[in-house]
User: Fold this.
Amino acid sequence: MNVEPGTFAPATAAAIAAARQQGISLHLEVLPASAWAALEASPAIPVGLAPGQPAKVYVIFDANCPYCADLYWRLQGDAFRSIGMRWAPVAFMKQDSAAIADVLLAANDPSKALDDYFRTNDLNSDKGHELPSFVMQARHAQDYTGLMRHLTEWGGYAPMVIIRTPAGEVLQVRHDQGEALRLALGLAAAR
Assistant:
């Protein structure tokens, strides 16, 4: 289904209207279809995805971002477990952001490494961060500039949640929390 840029597919418009009637504001912005291709081409960590399962949600994050860690823990709740996600790192907050992202991506089990990293570190403190010990695969350092350029084009903040609806819309979820976040991610999980 082709959706005109700047507009929502009928199912998305109906979900936004239903949320509004419940007093919930969904803050969604339509991104170009090419955004999804850019995300799929970027290095990312699968979270809650079975092997071969496509992602319905991308989260762009910096490993040193306390808001990203907070979002990670909120998305571990039962309401979000069935939604396949990929966490795509960028490096801009601190000098070691790229090195931490490289280590997480190179782990034999990157999703466990990401979970261990967020579990082990209090990103709100000024203390240095520890990387949990795990076996790493041989891999070259990643280039995060392409995704960083897109992040800047799409709003320039992390964490950034981007979903793809069954209608093929690529939507950025802007600063939603709680019930609004659940409803927005539910748009991606709809069949």
